[in-house]
Every structure is written in structure tokens, then in C-alpha cells.
Design goal:
Blueprint: H1 3-44, H2 49-53, H3 55-80, H4 88-105, E1 112-113, E2 116-117, H5 118-141, H6 145-163, H7 193-211, H8 213-223, H9 225-230, H10 235-261, H11 272-282, H12 294-313, H13 318-342
Antiparallel strand pairs: 1-2
Length: 344
Amino acid sequence: MSESRLADRTGGSGARHKGLMAALLPVAGLFFVFLLLLILIAAFVPENVEHYLALKNIKTILKQAVIVGIGALAMTMIIVSGGIDLSAGSLVALAAVVCAHTVNWCDGDVFYLGFIPVPVLAAIAVGAFAGLLNGAVSARLGIAPFIVTLGMMMIARGLAEGLANEEIVRTPDNVLKTLMMRNPEPGWLIFSYGVWINILLLAGMMVLMRYTVFGRYIYALGANEQAARYSGINVTVNRVLIFTIAGAMFGLAGVMSYADIGDGDPTTAIALELDIIAAVVIGGASLAGGRGTPAGSMIGALIISVLYNGCVMLRVDDWVQKVLIGSIIIAAVWIDGIRNRRTP
């Protein structure tokens, strides 16, 4: 065997090994966090150990990860492509209010367009339009996504409060309120409808980013936008498309927020974008762009959910939880910086 072929095979094996390690690291992190919290609960609040390990609590953890998980899948595309979206939480709140209003406009009945409820379509459409604006303004005017989405964060939150007249939009019982029930009907589903929707979205996003031309464009934009442009990739169109798809997914997360609360709350999801970004970074994505996977981001969302749940079991104050999550974000970005400096 020639030296060049041997080098190619060795290099390919090494790349696969690194890819496998990168994929397994978030999984190891999830198990580590779960076991660490178990040890702490056993040491300080032993009466909660049984509750922590109960199937009911596992179902709660998965349900609580749905909104962050959907947002993290959307944010993965944006961050891998070299962008950021600070408007995620506000778009979730706006979509939840729009969903609630649409239910009321239908007199409490949920009408369907095809097999999708009209309130769901309305929420997704609002999110997609906001994402379209984010992408178009940023790409066409050359304004950093950080600035554009910071502005959209305020706009969307203001619109949510205005549409709701600065109060919660109450709605009658309807089928959408069952999406986030911990114990769904029929019982053989085991987990809530939201969890299964999240799983389907994860599968779709994995296919999109790994096996499609558009997915390769996402990674190319994050790795080197100038090189991508010289390669014939339409940077503007693809950036607009990325933000539009992500906005639609934030809109769907808003539907889940509505289902979870049971009404449209314009004050919900404040600082949710921080949990979403933390999940993506914890899952192995680089804020510099070019690296990250949907599966890693979903595991990151589960880690965030386990942390919150464990803190409740430990009877930790809410402000301590915020300090903990903020510290984790800083640590994850620091580790990512070290990893980027070591990468040739």
C-alpha cells in the first residue's frame, strides 16, 4: 500500500474517531449531570431520590425539554452557519399569543387546514415572517445578526404585549392544550405529544443538515463565508432561508408554550434564548460557526432540563439556578474557545 493511501486511510480513521468522540461527549455529559444530581439529592434531600428516579419525573424532564429542544434545533442551524438569534424567546411569546388569539377567533374550536390546526399554522407563519425579516435585514443590509435579532427581540416582545393588551389571553379548552400533557391519551404513547413532535423534528433536522445540499451550505457558511461565496453559494438567499426556517420553528415552540401554560402569556419565555444558546453550545456547537449537530443540541437541551429539575429536587432557589446556568454558558464558551485554538 502506498504511503499516500495509508495516510488517507489513517486520516480518515482519525477524523471518524474525532467525530465519534465529539458525538459521545454530550451524551457523557448528560449522564454525568444526571448522576451528579442523584448523588447530591441522596446526600442532602434523600427523601427526593425516589421522586427523582421515578418514571413520572423522567416524563416531566422530557416534557420540560420540548420548548428549549425545538428552539435549540432551530438555533443549531443559525449558530453553525455563523449567526446568532437573540429574538428566540420573544418570538416564542409572540407565537403563543397569536395561537391563543386564533383559537378565540375560531370561537374555541380548532379548525384544520389539511391535518394541521389553523392556530398552529398562524403561530408558525408569524415566527417564519419574523425570521424572514431577521435574515433579510442582516444579509441584505450587512448588519450583524446580533444587532438585528436584538432589535427583533424588543419588537416581538412589544407586539406580544400589545396584541395581548398586556394581559394573559385566556382560551377555552381545546385539543392544543393536550400537546404538553405529561400523561397523554392514549396511554401507550407514554410521553407527551410534544416529546414525539420534538423527536420527529430532530430526525428531520438531522437529515436536513447531514444529507442535503442545503445542510452542506449551512456548514460552509459557518466555516468560511467568503470561501462559500467564491464557491458559488448564494450567501444571501441561504442566510434568509436559515433564519426563516428557524423562525418557523420558534413559532412552533410558541405553540408548545401555549399548550404548556394553557393560555397565551406575553411575558413567557423571557431569556429563553439564553437556555437555547446554552443547549446548543453544551451540545458541542461552536459560536464561531462551522461545527455542531442537531443531536448534540437536543442532548444539550436535556442537560438544561435535568439541571433545572435537579435543582428543584434539591430545593435550590431560583436565583441560584440562573447563576448556575449562566456559569455553564461561560464555561462552555471558554472550552469552545480552547478547542478552536487547538484546531489547526
